[in-house]
């Protein structure tokens, strides 16, 4: 469980970092097809990485609510709690975007 929590953090960092790094290369005076190509690159690489992070993060963060599972996973120390706290913050961000997507798609 601890490895999945760490993997979720690493995937999120890679996805956000790659997206930020690529968008820093876009010049505001660049043609629109350059900006569209950069957007496609971010969608192809960053979006699946963030989706993998969400898939790892959401179930494991909720499963660690059980103190017995936290003890079995070795999450009862300071670093374990910091990883878990960071993943809680990511969980709320992911849930916000999931609910926003559902609201936009179904026009609720």
From TrEMBL:
<keyword id="KW-1133">Transmembrane helix</keyword>
<feature type="transmembrane region" description="Helical">
    <location>
        <begin position="85"/>
        <end position="106"/>
    </location>
</feature>
<keyword id="KW-0472">Membrane</keyword>
<keyword id="KW-0812">Transmembrane</keyword>
<protein>
    <submittedName>
        <fullName>Uncharacterized protein</fullName>
    </submittedName>
</protein>
<feature type="transmembrane region" description="Helical">
    <location>
        <begin position="7"/>
        <end position="26"/>
    </location>
</feature>
<feature type="transmembrane region" description="Helical">
    <location>
        <begin position="38"/>
        <end position="65"/>
    </location>
</feature>
């Amino acid at each position: 469980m601890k490895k999945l929590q760490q993997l979720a953090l690493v995937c999120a960092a890679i996805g956000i970092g790659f997206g930020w790094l690529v968008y820093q290369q876009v010049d505001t005076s660049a043609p629109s097809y350059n900006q569209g190509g950069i957007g496609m690159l971010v969608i192809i690489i960053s979006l699946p990485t963030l989706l993998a992070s969400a898939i790892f993060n959401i179930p494991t963060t909720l499963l660690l609510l059980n103190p017995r599972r936290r003890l079995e996973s070795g999450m009862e120390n300071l670093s374990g709690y910091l990883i878990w706290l960071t993943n809680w913050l990511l969980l709320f961000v992911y849930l916000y975007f999931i609910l926003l997507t559902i609201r936009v798609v179904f026009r609720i």
